[in-house]
Write a structure and sequence with these properties.
16-stranded parallel β-sheet, alpha/beta, 15-stranded parallel β-sheet, Alkaline Protease, subunit P, domain 1, single chain, about 25% helix
Length: about 475
C-alpha cells in the first residue's frame, strides 16, 4: 500500500502504509505508522502513532505518543500520553503525567506530574514527582515519593522513600524504609532501616533492623534485636522482647529483666569480652576492667599491677587531716536526694586525689595533656575508703600506745577500790560508835535535866531557910548513882 504525507511539509521516508497527516509531521519508515500531530515523528517500526504536537515514537510496535512533546523510544504497546511524557521502551508501559517518564520494563505506569518509573514490571509512580526505580508491583503514591525497587513496596507519604525489599510501606511524611520485608514507617520522618516486620510509627522514630521491633514514641530508637518496643518519646531500647512497662520519656533500656522471655545481657565498653553486667576497659587508658557485679556492686580495678608512683602516708598525719575534713548532710540541688559525705573541694584540698590532667588527641593526631579544671568537683568512693582505713590504722596505733597506760590505770583503780572498801568498813564501825554515844548522850541529858530541876528546888529552899540535911540527902545519892560511860 502507499504511504501518505498530506500535511504541509509532511514527510514519509519509506516503508508501507505509513501516514504523516499534519504539518511538519514525519514517518521515517516501517509499516502502518502514523504521525498525526503537528511536527510529530515516527521513526519506524509498526503500528506506531505520534498523535500530538511534537510527539515522537522512535520505533517498536503499537506504541503511542499522544501528549504534546510526548516520546516513546521503542518497545511494544507503550504509551506516552502526558505533556512531554517519555517511555523509553519496554512493553505496555504508560507515561500519562506531564513530564512523566518510564525508562523501560513492562506494565509500568508513571501517572503523576514528572513521575518516573525506571523499569521493572507492574510498577506505578502516581504521585507528582514520584519515582519507582524498578522491581515489581511497587507504588510511589505520595508527592515526591520514591521506591528504589523490590517487590510490592509502597511509598505513600509526602517525600516518603522505600529503598527496596518486599511488602514495605513508607506512609508518613518524609518516612523511610531502607529494605527488608513487611516493614512500615508510618509517621513523619519515621525510619526503618531493614529487617522484618518492624514498625516506626512515632514522629522521627527509628528502627534500625531486626525482627518485629516497634518504635512508637516520638524520636524513639530501636537499633535492632527482636520484639522490642520503644514506647516513650526519646527512648532507646535494645535486646530481645524488651517492652518497657511505662511510657516515661528520655530512657535507655538495654536487654530484659532476666526472665525466660526477656533475657538480660551485658554492656561491654572498651573491651572485646564481657564477664559482668557492665564491664569497662582493659587498661588505664579506657577503664581498667572496672565492672558492676551480678549482685549489684561496682568494683574498681585495683591491682598493684595497674598502678605506679606509690605514695606512703603516716596514719597519724592522715588522722589530723581527717579532723580538719568537714562531713555534712545535704540534698542535691532540685532533688529530694539526701546524702552525708565530705565535699569534693575539701577532700581535694586535704588529700589531692582525682584526675589532675586530661590526656587527649589534638587536631594533628598527637597526644596532649591539659590540666583538669574540674579535678576538685568529683570524689571517688575508693579514696574515701582509703583515707578511712588510714584513720583506723592511726587509731589502732594510738590504742597500742595507750594499752600499757590503761593497764597501769586499771591496777591503780583496783587498789583505790580496795582502799575505798576498807574506808567504808571503818566508816561503818565509826557510825556504830556514834550511834552508841548518841544513845548515852541522850541518857546523860535526861539525868542532867533531873539534876537541874533538883538544884532549882534546893536553891529555892535555901532562899527560904528551911532546908535540912535530911532534905538534901537525895542530892548526894543522885551523884553517887550516876552511871559510868561505856566505851
Amino acid at each position: 500500500m502507499k504511504n501518505t504525507a498530506r500535511g504541509s511539509n509532511a514527510t514519509v521516508g519509506g516503508g508501507w502504509d505509513n501516514t504523516a497527516s499534519s504539518n511538519y509531521a514525519t514517518v521515517g519508515g516501517g509499516r502502518k505508522n502514523t504521525a498525526s500531530g503537528f511536527a510529530a515523528t515516527v521513526g519506524g517500526g509498526g503500528f506506531n502513532t505520534a498523535s500530538d504536537s511534537a510527539a515522537t515514537v522512535g520505533g517498536g510496535y503499537q506504541n503511542t505518543a499522544r501528549g504534546d512533546a510526548a516520546t516513546v523510544g521503542g518497545g511494544v504497546e507503550n504509551t506516552a500520553s502526558g505533556k512531554a511524557a517519555t517511555v523509553s521502551g519496554g512493553w505496555n508501559n504508560t507515561a500519562s503525567g506531564s513530564d512523566a517518564t518510564v525508562g523501560g520494563g513492562a506494565l509500568d505506569t508513571a501517572s503523576g506530574v514528572a513521575a518516573t518509573v525506571g523499569g521493572g514490571r507492574e510498577n506505578t509512580a502516581s504521585g507528582d514527582f514520584a519515582t519507582v526505580g524498578g522491581g515489581r508491583k511497587n507504588t510511589a503514591i505520595g508527592y515526591a515519593a520514591t521506591v528504589g525497587g523490590g517487590y510490592e513496596n509502597t511509598a505513600s507519604g509526602w517525600a516518603a522513600t522505600v529503598g527496596g525489599g518486599v511488602n514495605n510501606t513508607a506512609s508518613g511524611v518524609g518516612a523511610t524504609v531502607g529494605g527488608g520485608g513487611g516493614n512500615t514507617a508510618s509517621d513523619t520522618s519515621a525510619t526503618v532501616g531493614g529487617g522484618e516486620q518492624n514498625t516506626a510509627r512515632g514522629d522521627a522514630a527509628t528502627v534500625g533492623g531486626g525482627y518485629e521491633n516497634t518504635a512508637s514514641g516520638d524520636f524513639s530508637v530501636v537499633p535492632g534485636g527482636a520484639s522490642n518496643t520503644a514506647n516513650g518519646d526519646y527512648n532507646l531500647v535494645f535486646g530481645e522482647n524488651v517492652d518497657p512497662s511505662v511510657t516515661e520519656t528520655h530512657r535507655v533500656y538495654f536487654f530484659g529483666d532476666g526472665t525466660s522471655s526477656n533475657p538480660s545481657g551485658f554492656l561491654v565498653i572498651n573491651r572485646l569480652d564481657g564477664d559482668h553486667p557492665i564491664h569497662v576497659g582493659t587498661d588505664s587508658t579506657n577503664g581498667n576492667g572496672a565492672h558492676l557485679t551480678a549482685g549489684g556492686t561496682w568494683t574498681n580495678g585495683s591491682s598493684r599491677s595497674f598502678k605506679e608512683r606509690f605514695v606512703q602516708y603516716r596514719p597519724a598525719e592522715v588522722l589530723e587531716k581527717i579532723r580538719q575534713l568537714p562531713v555534712e548532710g545535704y540534698f542535691y540541688k532540685g532533688t529530694e536526694e539526701y546524702h552525708i559525705t565530705p565535699m569534693a573541694e575539701d577532700f581535694y584540698r586535704l588529700f589531692g586525689t582525682g584526675v589532675h590532667e586530661i590526656i587527649e588527641t589534638d587536631s594533628t593526631g598527637q597526644l596532649v595533656r591539659r590540666p583538669n579544671p574540674e579535678v576538685d568537683k568529683y570524689l571517688a568512693a575508693s579514696d574515701v575508703a582509703g583515707v578511712a582505713l588510714l584513720g583506723v590504722k592511726a587509731l589502732d596505733e594510738r590504742m597500742s600506745t595507750l594499752g600499757p597506760q590503761n593497764s597501769a590505770l586499771e591496777q591503780r583503780l583496783e587498789q583505790l577500790h580496795q582502799e575505798n572498801q576498807q574506808i567504808k568498813q571503818e566508816n561503818q564501825h565509826l557510825q556504830q560508835r556514834i550511834e552508841v554515844l548518841q544513845q548515852q548522850n541522850g541518857r546523860l541529858q535526861q539525868q542532867l535535866e533531873q539534876v537541874m530541876e533538883r538544884l532549882a528546888l534546893v536553891e529555892a529552899q535555901l532562899q527560904q531557910g528551911g532546908s535540912t540535911a535530911g532534905e538534901n540527902a537525895w542530892l548526894g545519892r543522885a551523884f553517887r548513882t550516876r552511871p559510868t560511860a561505856q566505851w
